[in-house]
Amino acid sequence: MFELVFTRRFSMAHRLLAGESERCALPHGHNEYIRAHLRATNPTALDGRTNMVMPFQRAKGVWHGFIDNHVDHALQLAEDDPLLAWFASNEPRRARRILVTPGDPTTELLACLLMAKLNAFLAADGGALTCASIEIEETPTNTVRYSGDPLAVLPRPRAAPQCWWRRADTSISDT
């Protein structure tokens, strides 16, 4: 079975309030690589003419634009982080650049959220492809890889059931 694999780099900042690391409770950043592995939903033989599952540009275009224009340099905060209220009151324009997560924005959670978002994009494009797995390299020595149904492991959001990671738009929060 063919897999189309696309890699993108992005910079981010987050803070983790629920964990045990005091270092991670302060906003800090990482330069991350995200690698998406796509597979045909209904695999078939190559057609003898174009011999592609899907043209690369079509398969990765929306996804790369989303990562480059919305995820890159976004601040990632939990939906109950008090910094969200501060940004809403003091810098509402910048508040739109905050990627809001259900609980701490760990790399594990981000992998599932972004896999769900990618699957929403792929379904909106006809559903010929699905994301088989996603990897996020947080540091050169720490990588998270998830395969499976991300919606089965994601925590329940406080927002509406049609939260940002289920929609095929460029949103990164429901605030």
TrEMBL record:
Listed pathway(s): Purine metabolism; 7-cyano-7-deazaguanine biosynthesis
UniProt-recorded Gene Ontology molecular function terms: 6-carboxytetrahydropterin synthase activity; metal ion binding
Pfam families cross-referenced by the UniProt entry: PTPS
Catalytic activity: 7,8-dihydroneopterin 3'-triphosphate + H2O = 6-carboxy-5,6,7,8-tetrahydropterin + triphosphate + acetaldehyde + 2 H(+)
InterPro entries in alphabetical order: 6-PTP_synth/QueD (IPR007115), 6-PTP_synth/QueD_sf (IPR038418)
Keyword Lyase in record: yes
Keyword Lyase: yes
EC number: 4.1.2.50
Cofactor: Zn(2+)
Keywords (A to Z) from UniProt: Lyase, Metal-binding, Zinc
Similarity section: Belongs to the PTPS family. QueD subfamily.
Matching PANTHER family: 6-PYRUVOYL TETRAHYDROBIOPTERIN SYNTHASE (PTHR12589:SF7), PYRUVOYL TETRAHYDROBIOPTERIN SYNTHASE (PTHR12589)
Functional summary from the UniProt entry: Catalyzes the conversion of 7,8-dihydroneopterin triphosphate (H2NTP) to 6-carboxy-5,6,7,8-tetrahydropterin (CPH4) and acetaldehyde.
Protein name per the record: 6-carboxy-5,6,7,8-tetrahydropterin synthase
